[in-house]
Each structure stands twice: as C-alpha cells, then as structure tokens.
Amino acid sequence: MKRVLLSASSMVDPDAFRAFIGDAVDEPVEIEVARLGATGRLIEAGSRFDDGAGFDAVVVDVDTAVTAETLDALGSELEVVVRAAVGVNDVDVSAAADAGVTVTRVPEYCTEEVATHSLSLLFACLRSVAEYDAAVADGRWTWEEGRPIRRVSESTIGLLSFGPIARRAAEQLSGFGATLLAYDPFVDGDRMDERGVEKVTFEALFDRSDHVAVYAPLTESTRGIVDGDALARLSAHSVVINVGRGPVIDAGALVETLESGAIKAAGLDVLAEEPPDDDPLVGRDDTIITPHAAWYSEDAREELNRSVAADVAAVFNGGVPDGRVDPDADWL
C-alpha cells in the first residue's frame, strides 16, 4: 500500500489525481486530502498513522513550505515531494536529497497562461485601461484621462529571465514590432537570437528598456534584485510587470518609485506576501494586481494534475519522473 498526502488547494484536484494515477501504479494507493497551507499543518499530517510509516508521497501547493524539519516529520517511508507548481523556492531540495527524497515540479504546465497574462498586464498598463474604466465610471468621458500613452511598436521591452514562459512571451510579442532584450545568466545569446531577442547585462536591461517584465524564479541571487537602483534606471513612461515571484522586486522600492512618478505603472500577479496584509501596493491607481492567477486555465489545471500524478507514479514504479528537480542545479 502506498500512501499519498494531497494538499487541498485550488490547484490540486483530488478527483483528477485519482483518475490520472488510476492503474499506473502496481500496488494500491491510499490518498488523503488535507488543508495544509503551513509547515506546521504538514508536520501534523505526517504523524497521523499509528504504524509510524507516514506518507510515501506528498503533493503540496505553493502555499506550503517543505523544510528539513518537515521531511524528518513525514517519516522514513517518504519517497517523493511534488510541488504542484513551477517553482520550488520554499522546498529544501538539498535536505530532501540528503534524505533520499526526490523532489519534482511541473515546469511548463502553465507556460501559455502566464505568458499571456504577463502581456495582458503589460498592455492594460500601457493603454491605461484601469484609468479609463475608472474615469468612465465616474462620469468622465475623455481620452486625456490616460495620458501619456506611447506606441508598443516603438518601445523596447526587457525580459528578466528567459525560461519557457519568457520565451513564449517573446514569441507573442514578436508580432507587435517592439525591440526585445533579456537578461538571464543561464541562457546563452544564441538561444535568445533565435527568437529575435538580444542578450544584455542586468544593468543594460534597465538602462535600455522602456518596460520590464519579470519572469524570474525566487532564488538567493534573485531575491530583491529589482531594487531602487534598478528601478531608477527606467523612465517616467515605464511599466514594470511581475509574473515571477513577488520578492524578486523590492516592494518598498517599487512603492517609492511609483509615488515619485519615476515610472508610469506596475502590473503584478505576485506579491511579497500572499494574500496581502496591508500592502501599500494594493489599491493604487497606478498598479494593477491579480491574485497569483496567471497560471490558471481549465486546460492548465488539468495538465498540472495529470503531470503530478504521473510523477508520483514514476517514483512508485522505480522510474525517473519528468519533473525531477536536480539538487545541484545552478538556479536553485
């Protein structure tokens, strides 16, 4: 008997997981669904069985950190921790490797959705959509409300990170005529050139870009990388988009930059704290915020659950899961 703990969340669908894992595992699978959302709840869930065996697999959402302490509490039978998301920034991958536990993620399930969402935020900010909507609702029918607006085709857009989502966004942007730049120390210039994107340094990205879209994962090297100095390199007409991870941008510096009028607007799908608690970015007229929803479509959710189940089945059957995270990866 294999035991699987599933996080009860908007992303993980227990019925879909059961359906997908189906006959893929050679022995019976017992599935328990629990409302996690905190490390303490995960540790508590790991001690429920009288036989002390714990779970063989744990599937968690982005709201549940998996620490070394968690791994110890989940028992010696644990074989795999599955992050039902793209990033693994709050999973202790090194501790898992030391414990002989495989960590997997689903790196490309929502590539199309997040890329599209990033452009939606960008164009909404560029075209002053929120300002126009608020003005009309307030009885003001005037084009001047959204000034100034500049052509996309005559702008330079910088992409911070050039993974699958940023590459898809570059493809989508290619038809608008904008100049595209990207900074990513792990991607060579030839791969960017193939997509009509120029590889630049971090400083040049902000010096030369009219607008910057952040796709970067959260690592020690990216935390707070978009700070006040970086933002100061932009112009008063600039827009900053973040669909990567909230803490990649220094939130305090972003607030100060917006308040000073040094940039035009920000479009954010991720925040430093989610859900926000008295966040000064929330409710600003120059900021559009969506609730970490860029990943969502019914298609992406189905693909996520299929991939999660396939990875669990692969580990249980002695194979290598498609979403395995290399504990020695440079980007971690």
From TrEMBL:
<dbReference type="InterPro" id="IPR006140">
    <property type="entry name" value="D-isomer_DH_NAD-bd"/>
</dbReference>
<dbReference type="GO" id="GO:0016491">
    <property type="term" value="F:oxidoreductase activity"/>
</dbReference>
<dbReference type="InterPro" id="IPR050418">
    <property type="entry name" value="D-iso_2-hydroxyacid_DH_PdxB"/>
</dbReference>
<protein>
    <submittedName>
        <fullName>C-terminal binding protein</fullName>
    </submittedName>
</protein>
<dbReference type="InterPro" id="IPR006139">
    <property type="entry name" value="D-isomer_2_OHA_DH_cat_dom"/>
</dbReference>
<dbReference type="InterPro" id="IPR036291">
    <property type="entry name" value="NAD(P)-bd_dom_sf"/>
</dbReference>
<dbReference type="Pfam" id="PF00389">
    <property type="entry name" value="2-Hacid_dh"/>
</dbReference>
<keyword id="KW-0520">NAD</keyword>
<keyword id="KW-0560">Oxidoreductase</keyword>
<comment type="similarity">
    <text>Belongs to the D-isomer specific 2-hydroxyacid dehydrogenase family.</text>
</comment>
<feature type="domain" description="D-isomer specific 2-hydroxyacid dehydrogenase NAD-binding">
    <location>
        <begin position="119"/>
        <end position="294"/>
    </location>
</feature>
<feature type="domain" description="D-isomer specific 2-hydroxyacid dehydrogenase catalytic">
    <location>
        <begin position="53"/>
        <end position="325"/>
    </location>
</feature>
<dbReference type="InterPro" id="IPR043322">
    <property type="entry name" value="CtBP"/>
</dbReference>
<dbReference type="Pfam" id="PF02826">
    <property type="entry name" value="2-Hacid_dh_C"/>
</dbReference>
